[in-house]
């Protein structure tokens, strides 16, 4: 087809000489190769397990488990399924990790601040604590708490008795558990409303102070409301709360709530170990804030506590958050050491007993890995959100 | 030390399992050839249970489960010492066998339907007929398992014991708190320190574990036997040649006892006219050849390890601290149920 000579746009180099095309092509080839390798491993595993007569698939999750679990947050007995042992294990892992993270953070912040205290004794005590906990392997610390401390407690019949009907023995810590009667809901609702009211009050007081300079004792009024109102309702409703007291019956204490020694040992070890690391992170964060900031704040007349709370910590958080996230992830993953002392966490229950009773190693290991991956990524995600909120805003 | 080692090993074994299964060739390995080529049998045993498999002061493994492996090594390789013992916890044992880490598992393992089928394993026979019992402290004043409602019970993870325990308490409508440990040694420590009121395991193991207490007489084994626990060696499915070898070595030792052949009188027995003895010792017929072994396979096992009675008495019977009676483990001709098919 002959037409008027249109000036053709200057053609680029041939595709195989075009660096961008080549780059994409190489990446596609690499991706296909990687996928092919994984697919082959997957297929090969299936074929091999079939040829060796090993059962595969996830049908086992519906089978009756038939074994007991020492401690569960949801109702569980031997007639439940393997699927339920999975949930029991996840919840036990989350419980010890969650409480561990909470307390490790609190103790860690105290330690970090104490390390920088001008008081020689406090600073050195924090230093000694941090150096000991950071430098002794976690597994040994777990064994220490479990075998050296909790195992040496007396038996149920010679329990150590504490106020309010709490008992400590080598079977665990027993405490009264609250029995909530229906009317208790009124108290809970009052408490919620009081908190909401306090938030509104504090905001209003701040706005008014910003606008007019007049101060209002918002904090003390709020505290009185949050504590006083629920107590008033509690009294009006006729004390709708009774306590279930633990009592020695047969071999063990019955009634009340019970913390098993395996949980206490693991929780203490994880908390105290991780707190040492968090203490150092907090110290480095505080020291990263330039000294000029503290001096300027003092020059403006802020008290040392205010300087720390309003000037130093907010800036230090930017340095603290990323390594703190790793410590949270470490603590969660370290909780799998539970299996060494028999705390029924995910690894102990699901990757231990369930794996052994069903023999389905590949499925169970994969599920367990997926759980830890999910927990870790969730923690990361939440911490990253927080990090973005406190990060330096460049304008 | 075992306790420290057990946890990482469990993880590593489970982790390696996927890789091992994924990368191994599709055909089942010819274990007999592999063992002959390697010149060594790899045998999975406990991390320490006296009478069954336990390292002595100089690091030599002893016990009836250990002798089962030694007899196989003697029959296959002509040397009862050509065995590498791999200590495993209950949780690790099947994974170790499935992945080919060991050739035979001889570790107080109960023969059940599930293990015979969906685990891809085969039990080759019964080396010890056992049953589950309870060990309690004398001070508790308990005389029957029916008084154990509400007790804390120490038990090893991943065992049939764990399941029987739950079944028993459920059937009797009693509650219990299972305190589950990885290794057998941990369960007796937990019992000794008072973490649990009761230790449950196979009765033979209870007698063995009781010797580890500071004062063995402070604890008693309750009379109830709540389950059948036939313990035996295990091999992988799909390798019939190897399955036959392990199975018939035990049968040879049982037949030897029945025929009166011991490690001491073996040489005199070579002159015997009894055709059954001749076939067993290998002076007549080609029994060894049929198994893929040399003709003196059974003679080697008997000479180096002994017949079943010798193996039993030395490790768990009257010649041992455990002093367990033959009971069910006597030959069928002596009122027990140990019965081996004929070698012919």
UniProtKB/TrEMBL annotation, chain A:
**Main location as per UniProt:** membrane
User: Listed GO molecular functions?
Assistant: transmembrane transporter activity
Q: Which residues form the ABC transmembrane type-1 domain?
A: 90-383
- One Pfam family this sequence matches: BPD_transp_1
The record's subcellular locations are: Cell inner membrane; Cell membrane
In terms of CDD domains, this protein maps to:
TM_PBP2
Entry GO CC: ATP-binding cassette (ABC) transporter complex
Q: What is this protein called?
A: General L-amino acid transport system permease protein
Q: Which organism is it from?
A: Roseospira goensis
TrEMBL record, chain B:
> Which protein is depicted?
General L-amino acid transport system substrate-binding protein
In Gene Ontology terms, what is a biological process of this protein?
amino acid transport
Q: Which SMART domains match?
A: PBPb
The record's PANTHER family line, in alphabetical order, gives: AMINO ACID ABC TRANSPORTER PERMEASE, AMINO-ACID ABC TRANSPORTER-BINDING PROTEIN YHDW-RELATED
Q: Which Pfam families match?
A: SBP_bac_3
Signal sequence region:
1-24
UniProt entry keywords in alphabetical sequence = Signal, Transport
Query: What InterPro entries has UniProt attached to this entry?
Result: Bact_solute-bind_prot3, SBP_3_CS, Solute-binding_3/MltF_N
Q: Does the keyword Transport apply?
A: yes
**Similarity comment text for this entry:** Belongs to the bacterial solute-binding protein 3 family.
Superkingdom, taxonomy of origin: Bacteria
Solute-binding protein family 3/N-terminal domain location is: 40-269
Does this entry carry the keyword Transport? Answer: yes
């Amino acid at each position: 087809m002959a037409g008027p000579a249109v000036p053709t746009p200057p053609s680029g180099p041939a595709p195989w000489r075009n660096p961008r095309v080549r780059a994409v092509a190489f990446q596609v080839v690499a991706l296909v190769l990687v996928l092919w390798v994984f697919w082959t491993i997957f297929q090969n595993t299936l074929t091999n397990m079939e040829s060796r007569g090993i059962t595969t698939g996830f049908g086992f999750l519906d089978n009756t488990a038939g074994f007991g679990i020492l401690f569960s947050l949801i109702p569980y007995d031997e007639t439940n399924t393997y699927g339920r042992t999975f949930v029991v294990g996840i919840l036990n892992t989350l419980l010890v990790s969650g409480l561990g993270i909470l307390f490790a953070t609190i103790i860690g912040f105290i330690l970090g601040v104490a390390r920088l205290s001008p008081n020689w004794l406090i600073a050195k005590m924090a230093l000694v604590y941090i150096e000991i906990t950071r430098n002794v392997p976690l597994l040994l610390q777990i064994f220490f708490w479990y075998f050296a401390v909790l195992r040496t407690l007396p038996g149920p019949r010679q329990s150590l008795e504490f106020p309010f009907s709490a008992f400590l023995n080598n079977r665990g810590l027993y405490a009264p558990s609250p029995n909530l009667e229906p009317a208790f809901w009124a108290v809970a609702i009052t408490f919620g409303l009081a908190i909401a009211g306090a938030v509104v009050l504090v905001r209003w007081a701040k706005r008014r102070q910003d606008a007019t300079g007049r101060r209002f004792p918002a904090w003390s009024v709020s505290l009185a409301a949050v504590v006083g109102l629920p107590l008033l309702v509690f009294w009006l409703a006729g004390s709708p709360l009774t306590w279930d007291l633990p009592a020695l019956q047969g071999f063990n204490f019955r009634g009340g709530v019970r913390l098993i020694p395996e949980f206490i040992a693991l929780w203490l070890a994880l908390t105290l170990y991780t707190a040492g690391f968090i203490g150092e992170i907090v110290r480095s964060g505080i020291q990263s804030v330039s000294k000029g900031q503290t001096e300027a704040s003092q020059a403006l007349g802020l008290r040392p506590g205010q300087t720390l709370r309003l000037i130093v910590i907010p800036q230090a958080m930017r340095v603290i958050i990323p390594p703190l996230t790793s410590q949270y992830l470490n603590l969660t993953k370290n909780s799998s050491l539970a299996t060494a002392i028999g705390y029924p966490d995910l690894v102990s229950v699901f990757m231990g007993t369930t794996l052994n009773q069903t023999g389905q190693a590949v499925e169970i290991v994969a599920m367990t890995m997926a759980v830890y991956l999910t927990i870790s990524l969730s923690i990361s995600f939440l911490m990253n959100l927080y990090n973005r909120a406190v990060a330096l805003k460049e304008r | 030390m075992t306790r420290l080692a057990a946890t990482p090993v469990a993880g590593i074994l489970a982790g390696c399992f996927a890789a091992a299964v994924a990368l191994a060739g599709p055909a089942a390995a010819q274990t007999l050839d592999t063992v002959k080529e390697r010149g060594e049998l790899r045998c999975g045993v406990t991390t320490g249970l006296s009478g069954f498999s336990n390292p002595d002061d100089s690091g030599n493994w002893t016990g009836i489960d250990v002798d089962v492996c030694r007899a196989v090594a003697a029959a296959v390789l002509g040397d009862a010492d050509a065995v590498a013992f791999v200590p495993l916890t209950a949780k690790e044992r099947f994974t170790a066998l499935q992945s080919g880490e060991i050739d035979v598992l001889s570790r107080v393992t109960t023969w059940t339907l599930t293990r015979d089928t969906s685990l891809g394993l085969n039990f080759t026979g019964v080396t010890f007929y056992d049953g589950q019992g309870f060990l309690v402290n004398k001070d508790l004043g308990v005389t029957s398992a029916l008084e154990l409602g509400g007790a804390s019970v120490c038990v090893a993870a991943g065992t049939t014991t764990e399941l029987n325990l739950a079944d028993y308490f459920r059937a009797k409508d009693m509650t219990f708190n299972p305190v589950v440990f990885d290794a057998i040694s941990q369960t007796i420590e937990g019992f000794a320190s008072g973490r649990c009121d009761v230790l449950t395991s196979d009765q033979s193991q209870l007698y063995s574990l009781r010797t580890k207490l500071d004062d063995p007489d402070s604890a008693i084994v309750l009379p109830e036997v709540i389950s059948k626990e036939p313990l035996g060696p295990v091999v992988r499915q799909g390798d019939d040649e190897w399955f036959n070898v392990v199975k018939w070595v035990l049968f040879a030792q049982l037949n030897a006892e029945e025929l009166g052949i011991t490690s001491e009188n073996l040489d005199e027995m070579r002159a015997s006219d009894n055709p059954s003895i001749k076939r067993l010792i290998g002076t007549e017929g080609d029994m060894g050849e049929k198994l893929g072994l040399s003709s003196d396979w059974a003679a080697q096992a008997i000479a180096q390890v002994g017949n079943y009675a010798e193996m039993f008495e030395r490790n768990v019977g009257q010649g041992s601290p455990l002093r367990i009676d033959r009971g069910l483990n006597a030959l069928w001709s002596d009122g027990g149920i140990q019965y081996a098919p004929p070698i012919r």
